[in-house]
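Hi P.,

Sorry for the delay on this. The queue was packed all week, but I finally got your sequence through. Input first:
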Amino acid sequence: MGYHQNKILLQSQIVETEKLLELANGNPFIEISLNERLKSLKEQLENLQEVVEPKITLLFSGDMVYGSKGINTNFVSRTMMPIQNLIKLQTSIERYGKEPGKRGKIKGKKLSELYLTSLEKGSFGYELSLLNPQDIFEEQEVGESIQSVMDIIYDISADDSLYEKHIHNLPPRGVILLNSFFKELADSNSILKMESGSKFKEISKDQIKTAFTRISSTICEQEEIIIKAIFKGALIDTGKFELLSITGKKLNGDISPNLSQEEIAQLNKEFSNEECEIKMIKFITKYNNGTKKITFELLGISKN
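Then the structure:
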């Protein structure tokens, strides 16, 4: 039983026990037993530990769910892809964090994949888990990233000001993934429940539709390009790279989350201050206030 379910169960048992105490009519034997049970339940509730786990459970309803019996497989695949990649992207952001103590915990390692480990019944859905952590740091890192993604998804559905806070800080890839995720839920008239460790979030059908309206108002276009330039280097600590175009213009951007720290170090060794072919994704993000931002993501480098 998960943290949230356990907490709800204990709270309901406390309420039931208190009601039974009211009906005891001063019977000392019944009251002694019920008071002991009430004390035990309250202690269990107080001692529940908040936990971070590298897994997430998502529950849905609506057109793609058949009661508590089944869920459309196409819906599963179309929602699973963006949520997996959002978590992967957020893990990359956490790894290249602003705090020096958080950087480079898992040197040389690519981001691990989440696996489908359970199909949840009741409200129907699925569970995604990290099955092959490379060390204890990755378990914590992925768990924290999952909870961050849950907060972002919930905030976008909850409030315009929270949406504005996130949308200008999200990488363009994240905007595209969120748009895909919310579109699938909105088109299916679904609610969303998310649980990971001790964190639980629930979003109504109307909030889902509002969130999709918000996120779809930000248009993000992407194009894969290859340019000739001088590669000035990539910083593992920050996840950023810089190059100098043949016209002398400086250009910088983010390193793809699919590149491991070992691969980044190899690119620095082979291509620093060399003219080469840079493979990137060019993102053009147009916000609903009329502003536009162009960003780049490094995919790879080869010799001319």
